[in-house]
UniProtKB/TrEMBL annotation, chains A, B:
Residues 46-296 form the THIF-type NAD/FAD binding fold domain. It comes from the Eukaryota. Keywords: ATP-binding, Metal-binding, Nucleotide-binding, Ubl conjugation pathway, Zinc. The lineage of its organism: Eukaryota, Metazoa, Chordata, Craniata, Vertebrata. This is Ubiquitin-like modifier-activating enzyme 5. It comes from Oncorhynchus mykiss (Rainbow trout). The gene is LOC110535608. The keyword Ribosomal protein does not apply. GO terms for molecular function: ATP binding; metal ion binding; UFM1 activating enzyme activity. The keyword Chloroplast does not apply. GO terms for cellular component: cytosol.
Length: 396, 396
């Protein structure tokens, strides 16, 4: 029986070694780094970021480690957004999502097939911690739009920063439905919290990002969103046998321009865009500034505007409208139908309504009390060429 | 001793189970799929791509499985490019790179710390196979610019397609140096092979993509590149203690617009851009068409032009020049100094020369025999505003 014992001992040693190797392959922990170094060696994960200082782009790159960013929605855009911020060495990330990873998500970056079935926030945290152990993570596996969770969401964005008891520096909306955007909008208007919106159209070929500084720039309720997902969530889409298209390219571009805007905003370099659209069919990227709407439905938005004392509202707000018509015309998008608007007004405002899959409605709303743009005029505007629109932009 | 044997047996069983779990976590193989389905179920990785057909964007999405794309350079842009194509279900990918994964690459997407030390093509293939087992992979761990490997590179792009003995459908240049771009350019001009160029500036805040159809559009030798990496490779940079900056955002955006252009080109939808630039500081994305230069130094380019019978060269070529000056002025970029140009000509051509880190030289070359743009004129052009440049674009 001695042989048997020796054999078994040998087998145990073999298995132990194999297990160690397997675990190492899966996630070789890299050491935490106390202080970002600009040293140019292969083993320094921050050398190429610290080089931004020497190149004259960013004055104080290390400051990135002091910031806390909340990402709401860890799907096609949110997961890549979180990965980019993690690789840039952000101080803390707070992730919110209530969905699970599915194989149907594999046509977008970030999640891998072996993560199917895990909650998105759990799977994301595991991957991101392995990529950069210097980042702090806090995850919440719930839907922020329910009453109970909304209160907790408000609490975490108000007090969840790295600096105990402080509010986060920025909230990024990477959600796929109207309700979640409105929830973030309501929270941020009440708290005076700056955030950035992002979105990708249901046909996968356009998207946008938007900076919202309560009281200063247009909030999500101030004006009709330019490119908006249908106001039905993914589960509804599936139930009805309808499925939105998505592409890793469009979502990667939107995440890229979103996080670029975050870096520019936090580290103070370049021009922070108030609105940047992406039309993939024509490689058209409109940018513009949008001021808050004094007749906004959100009373906290109007209160923030009073505090900010907005003046001269007309110009940018009109500009915003003409470009949104361009989008509704070209996107075949799925835009939320606002109830106080009739079908006729809708047609007049947004030009030809495209054929849409069942369960998705088109909508467009001109903010009430808006003057200077008549219904008839706007129909024609949707027929304008890109050049004419851009020429118009400059005139404003 | 029986206890000991029982204990050992128990330990072996425990370890075996743990090992199985570890291996499963690392790479749960998903089954291959013979035929892309549009069925909307959580387990279908292609449902969101096939939805592009129902949305009216792509006519025949399944055709993606018949295409072979070669990616040269699997770094910050190339790895994300390969991942996007893999997730889109491309038929076959041929990857070329001779570099190893390092922790210093962790500020860009795709590679993970546990892959440090592996060759980039090996690490990439492993990750990509796990993501989508339906894609065929072929990897080459060598430098295409050496004589021997260049011949092999020519062979693989000529005969490496899914369809035995056929040329690849497209080559994507995701390299970081001038020599490799010139090697791809030479090969493609000789073979009449369509390819796309991509690049990110050394200061990490601008990039571009370019479609090159030999004889039809400007090749890499036809005109000075708009945004170019320094003509010193990464190893030289490191040796001199100089290190280029990079950002996951800029590289993600460039990979996204590159693969979007690939999808539009292969699946025939939208407008395929000949040139699309990205200036992250100002969120400026110039697009334009560029025709081949009849006086190009590459004789194969001139031969392809004869075959294509190019007419009316002037307009787009001038446009190209005025925008390249915009870039050289704003980029603080690292552009290759062409020997036949004097320092004075350089200053005259590219406006104020920015302070650059040691070891990186600025260069700009106006193609010989170019008429209609005098040196003095171009200096002033670099001082123009974006609006003026775009107005000028439309006049051409």
């Amino acid at each position: 029986n001695m042989t048997s014992i020796e054999e078994l001992k040998l087998r145990v040693r073999e298995l132990e070694n194999e297990l160690i190797k397997c675990k190492q392959k899966r996630c070789t922990a890299i050491p935490r780094i106390d202080k970002m170094s600009a040293e140019v060696v292969d083993s320094n994960p921050y050398s190429r970021l610290m080089a931004l200082k020497r190149m004259g782009i960013v004055e104080d790159y290390e400051k990135i480690r002091t910031f806390t960013v909340a990402v709401v929605g860890v799907g096609g855009v949110g997961s890549v957004t979180a990965e980019m911020l993690t690789r840039c060495g952000i101080g803390k990330l707070i992730l919110f999502d209530y969905d699970k990873v599915e194989l149907a998500n594999m046509n977008r970056l970030f999640f891998q097939p072996h993560q199917a079935g895990l909650s998105k926030v759990e799977a994301a945290e595991h991957t991101l911690r392995n990529i950069n152990p210097d980042v702090q993570f806090e995850t919440h596996n719930y839907n922020i739009t329910t009453m109970e969770h909304f209160a907790h969401f408000m609490d975490r964005i108000s007090y969840g920063a790295l600096q105990e008891g402080k509010a986060v520096d920025l909230i990024l909306s990477c959600v796929d439905n109207f309700e979640a955007r409105m929830a973030i909008n309501a929270a941020c208007n009440e708290l005076g919290q700056t955030w950035m919106e992002s979105g990708v159209s249901e046909n996968a070929v356009s998207g946008h990002i938007q900076l919202i500084i309560p009281g200063e720039t247009a909030c999500f309720a101030c004006a009709p969103p330019l490119v908006v997902a249908a106001n039905i969530d993914e589960k509804t889409l599936k139930r009805e046998g309808v499925c939105a298209a998505s592409l890793p390219t469009t979502m990667g571009v939107v995440a890229g321009i979103l996080v670029q805007n975050v870096l520019k905003y936090l580290l103070k370099f370049g021009t922070v865009s108030h609105y940047l659209g992406y039309n993939a069919m024509q490689d058209f990227f409109p940018t513009m500034a949008m001021k808050a709407n004094p007749t906004c439905d959100d009373r906290y938005c109007r209160k923030q505007q009073d505090d900010y004392k907005v003046t001269d509202q007309g110009g940018p707000f009109l500009l915003f409208l003409s470009l949104s018509l361009y989008f509704t015309h070209h996107d075949l998008g799925c835009i939320e139908l606002v109830s106080e608007q009739t079908e006729e007004e809708l047609h007049a405002a947004s030009g030809p309504v495209p054929d849409l899959p069942e369960g998705i409605t088109v909508a467009y709303t001109i903010p009430e009390k808006e003057t200077g743009v008549s219904g008839g005029e706007t129909v024609e505007e949707t027929e304008q060429s890109l050049e004419e629109l851009m020429a118009q932009m400059r005139k404003m």
